[in-house]
Request: fold
Amino acid sequence: MKNYNWGIRSRIWIVLTCLFVVSLTFILLPEAYGATEEFIATSRTYGRDGRSYVEKDGNGNSVIHLYGIPYNMGYQHGYLLSTEAKTNIQNILDHIDDDPSITKEDLVEYWDDMDDTGHIPEKYKQEIERLIVGINDVIVPEPLTVDDAHAAIVFFDWDFYTCSSFVVFNSANSTSNLYHGRNLDGFVAMGLHNYPLIMICHPDDGQIFANITWAGVITMHTGININKISFSLDNLDQNDGVEKTMLGTPFSLLAREAVEEGKSLTEVVSILEDADRTVGMMYILADGNNLTTKVLETDEASYSSYGPEEPEGIVTEGTDLSIRTNFAFDTTSFGDRTLDDGDGKDAVERYYSLADNIQDNYGTIDLEKVITFLADSPVGNLITIQSTVFRTDTLDFWVANAEESPYSPAHLQTYYHYNDLSELINGGIDHHHSWYECAIATAAFGGYTDRHGLKSRISTDKAIAILCRFRDECLLTNPLGRAFVRFYYRHSPIVADFIRDKEPLKAVVRAGLRPLVCLAKKLIN
Reply:
């Protein structure tokens, strides 16, 4: 009889507690920018070629896992994403046709000159050629040519776009994490944002890395490697008087080479500095192992290198940070880069807006604030097509993309959380739920002491271990439980971030979670 009564009480407590957590999630869920969603929630594998495969979530975002030598990686990319890749490349070509300052033939000639002078790495030539073969093997009518792909790559060097980036770590943050935030502004007319893609690359001759890109675009504008180096870049060519030699390695290929081959911040910097470059570009690097940052201002002939909080006097408070928009600090080498950026907001205005936000929140910066900084005008503006946040030291990253019909910029969209690059590598998203901790329990119990100064009787580690076992042994064994787990992982990080520094709310959550922890312990035993 006692066992029967305990079973009834257990079920009642579980139902009430689940209703409490679900209700709390809906109450606290942000309605404006700053929302995040776990990619795991709706991911599925929808294409496979050998070891490589593509996963896609319910919002249409794709993650492609590519393996092998460049020859194979290119074909797998084109074959598995044939429709998206072809449409995206064709849109770039159509945009080139509408640009009176350049033609496709000009861009192909630039590529040929770069290739003839040895500036195009052989492995990327192979990958691009096989990308086109993979696309055309699926889509026979009106096939693309390799010249089409070459023109699309070189156009990024020719065209102008604007960006904002920052790195904050150590004393700047509420925790010891390193956050690397980045808005990519431009290319709206090409519609790149309609074909977002995360490339998880496993090259035979390089290290594993993630490329935050678009279907059919193998080059890199934003990325992170397994050795905890994250990367973004800002264009410096906003002065009509700047000479573009276009005789070097295209900057987005150079960026990929640096992230793919550089195993440390020093190695990445060396690759970027030693290369023959094409145009003015600023490279923003973050080192998650040593919690530091480096910025390179470059053009085809020169570069300047800056560490944290340099140059002196620009940011007056704090040292564990770096802030950049697309204007040069080294005006001697790079001239005046303070012209209008094409959206009515000049680079200096965006810089000081971003710097003010970071200084006003120095010492308390967390993920929620990082996302807010990226959204605040003029840093977040109408031409922001992609917003990315790296927590470089843990290999986590969040990505938001602009949406069409009606157009809405990236910083107003949901940030999808790609949890830990090393876990994405091991089995993909579909197999990765068992590695998640209970985010709400961690936030609620972490560092908690009661009014007598004693640690909570339910430690964070113990509570998490119990809840994880309850999830694996009870919830994931039935359809209703699995549905709840999917819902929880979609929304719990938002709640956790919201309550982490709000003790009254944490107390409410602790009160709601204690019965569930105790009952879960009883059930799994």
